[in-house]
Amino acid sequence: MIKDTTFDRISRRNFIAGASAGAVAVPFAGQSFAQSGGSVTVGTWGGDYGRLLRENVDPIMADKAVRVVQDVGDSDTRMAKTIAQRILPRGAVDVQCFDNVKAQALRNADALLPIDPAKLPSWNAIRPEARDPYIVPHIVSAQVIIYDPEQVDEPPTDLDALLNPKYKGKVGAIIANYYAFLMAGALYRGGSLDDYEAGKSYLKDVNANGLRLYAQPEAFTQAFKSKEIAIAVIWQARSIMWQNAGVRIESAWPKSGAMLYVSGLVIPKNAQNKDAAYAYIEAALQPKAQQGFAENMGYMPSIANANLPPNLAKRLELPPDAPKLVSPDLDKLARELPAMSDWWKKNIEYKG
């Protein structure tokens, strides 16, 4: 059964409206967290996301005399490190960037500190439907089909397009998105994000149609530029960012439904500098920082007072004919994630 989400019950067209210009901003109040300076270590994916953190969040921390150090790695590696270090008195990282699925897995492993809203002046600006006791939502997007209009004759209407023999050897995927790709297939073939077997069956069929895998989003983008691939499933924000960069792609909403993506910030329970961690998260929630991610990566802000320029807010809003937006059962998915990762590696990633 598809798990309903509050995103479905609000006006999808107006989801971004509260983030547009005219909303009341909450002034940054991180001074009490970072008066003594020092440093904060942030675990992140690096790439475009890490760059935008440096460009939009680090300057706010620099004003508080706090130096930001990025610990770059893929999600699985950083998650394993966080779990392994949870028994230590002091961990190596103060803030970790994860999607809400990985955050749930860390919560289940008792590796995270519960978020104290009293330490985040911008907590009340976070959209109520996105608040969580262990992860502070940072950016939001939905899963769409992207394609090269010079190689794909007609706009796709659903995920059967990736199985079309015309595009054999032209279907691409980013390895880190394996679980989201599987769940898109589950929604398409089984009618539910929870039907993992249907998702696995779909991925096997896509793989048989010449699926190409890429370790980094930048390599994936280059594959579209070079015409190596023609079609894929990815977050809408990525398609907007690449369009901004001049990549010739279009996006289409799958009629079977679109999974929501939430990326956020968590604090390991043994973080060395918890005050600086809260200051960093507060900085990431500032309208200026949220605007930077919306403008450069196409992600919808997680706060209602991001004050986006009207033209940007218009571009990010969901079309009236967009399909139902659905969220996974996070607890179930987090428990199944290790087995899902093993299956992916054995049957897709490392299968010749």
Characterization of the model:
This protein has 352 residues and is α/β, with parallel strands linked by helices. It has 2 domains: 14-137 and 264-312, 3-Layer(aba) Sandwich (D-Maltodextrin-Binding Protein, domain 2), CATH 3.40.190.10; 141-260 and 321-349, Periplasmic binding protein-like II (D-Maltodextrin-Binding Protein, domain 2, 3-Layer(aba) Sandwich). 38% of the residues lie in helices and 17% in strands. It is built from 14 helices and 11 strands. Strands 1, 2, 3, 4, 5, 6, 7, 8, 9, 10 and 11 form an 11-stranded mixed sheet that branches. α3 (47-56) packs antiparallel against α12, α7 (178-190) packs across α8 and α10 (236-244) crosses α12. The protein is globular, with a radius of gyration of 20 Å.
Relevant terms:
disordered N terminus, alpha/beta, 17% strand, globular, 2 domains, single chain, D-Maltodextrin-Binding Protein, domain 2, 38% helix, 352 residues
Give the helix/strand layout.
Blueprint: H1 6-9, H2 31-34, E1 38-44, H3 47-56, H4 58-62, E2 66-72, H5 75-84, E3 95-99, H6 100-108, E4 136-147, E5 171-174, H7 178-190, H8 196-208, E6 211-214, H9 217-225, E7 231-235, H10 236-244, E8 250-252, E9 258-266, H11 274-284, H12 287-297, E10 300-301, H13 310-316, E11 325-326, H14 330-349
Parallel strand pairs: 1-2, 1-3, 5-6, 5-7, 9-11
Antiparallel strand pairs: 3-9, 4-7, 4-8, 4-9, 4-10
Helix pairs in contact: 3-12, 6-14, 7-8, 10-12
